[in-house]
Amino acid sequence: MNLLCLNVETIPLQSSPVSTLKINNFLTDSDKQYFRDYTNYMSEGGEHTPLISDSYTLLECSELFELKNKFNNAVKIYVQEVLHIPDMQFKLIGSWLTKNTLNTSHDTHYHPNSMLSVATYFDDNINKEDYIQGLVFEQNKLDRVFPKFKFNFENLKPDMWNIYNCESYTIKPKHNDVIIFPSHLYHRSEINTTESRFCIGANYFISGELRSKDILSYIKL
Fold it and tell me: Cβ distance 189 to 59 under 8 Å?
């Protein structure tokens, strides 16, 4: 007997929301010049890896005070418009700058001891209408669907790729895009095709008063 399906409704339960916020003039000309002039870098290691600022508190400097506020406000938008928990508060715990030269890229990594990560980009060699360099989120195929099984499902070929069966998903940011995502997600960048692509990143941790369901555990951050 053939079944006639009239409709399929799918709920992305237990998902990890990755959001792109488009904010006009997120980076000002003075912000960009500050990053162009920045020289205190160290290498992440390897010939094809980017340079990273030796400061992990970059947004705390006086020259970037307004940009720090923009980062904080972007997180508030994420909490209100994506998580829809307006009373939830996050505190900036780290911020840095990376510079990708030609043919460099970020290896796959995640951000430990952090809850939310934020990134924005600019590249003087890229037209504002073109994407700068893809941010690639990786996962094992069907890992979110069947998390208890350590199969790689390589022999199964989807007839259409989606967020459930893909092995990677690429966000392609443009100028003034701000990407916010849970810090536990593994991610990397595409290989850079220009001379200088800058990424300003920040990590956040929850703040405020937290309790467990039984009210026996209490912590104030």
Answer: no
What pTM value is reported for the model? 0.91
pLDDT (tens digit per residue) in 140-168: 888 888 888 878 788 888 999 988 888 89
Provide the residue ranges of all domains of the chain, joining segments of one domain with +: 19-129+172-220, 135-171
Domain made up of 19-129+172-220: CATH architecture: Sandwich (2.60)
Could you write out the DSSP letters of every residue in the chain? ------------TT----EEEE-TTSS-HHHHHHHHH---EEE-SSTTS-EEES-SBGGGSGGGHHHHHHHHHHHHHHIIIII--TT-EEEEEEEEEEEE-TT--PPSB--TT-SEEEEEEE-TTS-TTS----EEEE--TTTTTSTT-----TT---SS--TTT-SEEEE---TTEEEEEETTS-EEEPPP-SS-EEEEEEEEEEESEEE-TTS--EEE-
